[in-house]
Write a structure and sequence with these properties.
The protein is α+β, with helices and mostly antiparallel strands. The chain has one domain: Cytochrome P460 (Chalcone isomerase), CATH 3.50.70. It is built from three helices and six strands. A six-stranded antiparallel beta sheet has the order 1-2-3-4-5-6. The longest helix has 23 residues. The chain binds heme C. The site of heme C (HEC) has 20 residues, from β1, β2, β3, β4 and β5.
């Protein structure tokens, strides 16, 4: 049951992103979201250790690949975004964990030639609307932790598109 609430909450959050964007435009302290704001949901996750909730979104290439089951490997041009929020309980429903403060957006960009050293993936993050690629050292840290998923092209998220 709890899982359902989390998933429902996150999906709602993802679809409401564009709404919160409109609100954010007038307020400098609110985060500005990148191109992923129009992307679709690949999955959701809840990090019990770090107390974050996440929405995993894909660009068109990623969504088409996921829908046709062609993710081994993910095609060139795939971009997967991971949006994180601090978790909080819903003020009107304490059993529901929902997104709180926005905690950032990271990306994996598939370009096998350019990023051959890190499994064909460029590791990046958004600073406002700008996608910034991480330096070699930071990318190596990202890649190391994605290594256990080698047999799934280094991607943890199993698309939930049913
Ligand atoms: C401590 C291990 C760890 C490190 C370090 C790490 N990741 Fe991940 N990453 C994960 C796990 C586990 C997931 C699955 C979903 C989650 O945690 O919310 C994930 C998911 C992702 C996703 C969504 C696609 C997928 O694989 O499911 C992106 C994008 C991503 N990470 C980017 C990065 C970037 C960029 C860095 C480096 C700045 C990074 N990660 C570093 C563990 C890690």
């Amino acid at each position: 049951m709890k899982k359902t609430y989390i998933a429902a909450g996150l999906l709602a959050a993802a679809s409401l992103l564009s709404v919160s964007l409109a609100v954010a435009e007038g307020a400098a302290e609110k985060p500005v979201h990148g191109e992923y704001k129009d992307w679709r949901v690949l999955g959701v996750s809840h990090r019990l250790d770090k107390k974050y909730v996440r929405s995993i979104l894909g660009n068109d290439v990623a969504i088409n690949a996921a829908r046709s089951g062609k993710t081994a490997p993910w095609p060139e041009g795939t971009i997967i975004a991971k949006l994180s929020w601090k978790e909080q309980t819903h003020p009107n429903w304490p059993n529901a964990v929902v997104p709180g403060e926005f905690a950032g957006a990271e990306a994996m960009v598939k370009d096998s030639k350019k990023f051959a050293e890190t499994g064909g993936w460029g590791f990046a993050h958004w600073e406002g609307t700008k996608l910034v690629f991480n330096d070699k050292e930071k990318s190596a840290t990202c890649f190391a932790c994605h290594m256990p998923m080698k047999d799934h092209d280094y991607v943890y998220t199993a698309p939930s598109l049913q």
